[in-house]
């Protein structure tokens, strides 16, 4: 592949990535959350309860990002954070019962945003063809 074509392919990739990032940032800003906080909220909701060390180990989130996200979600009263009695270093996370409807609403709205973005991308691809 010639360098010019490679450059064009690379630039197109970053344009699409930037568009998705801006859309995600706009969505999370509506709820005063960071991207990492929203990602962690999705992970916790999916698991019902999960240990923080599992999030760090399995969910591709750096330790400082996960710790900061946990702190902020806990302060916003969206999650429970419980230290397990058998091991004080182990923290278990879950969605607060009273914030469950709000979290589910966010997830549905985000899924709608993703679907809209996918439709826009399909339209753009068809226009380019």
UniProtKB/TrEMBL annotation:
Superkingdom, taxonomy of origin: Bacteria
Ranges where the Transcriptional regulator SarA/SarZ/Rot-like helix-turn-helix domain occurs: 29-106
Keywords, ordered alphabetically: DNA-binding, Transcription, Transcription regulation
Gene Ontology MF: a single term: DNA binding
Protein name: Transcriptional regulator SarA/SarZ/Rot-like helix-turn-helix domain-containing protein
Claim: Transcription regulation is one of the keywords in the record: yes
InterPro entries: Transc_reg_Sar_Rot_HTH, WH-like_DNA-bd_sf, WH_DNA-bd_sf
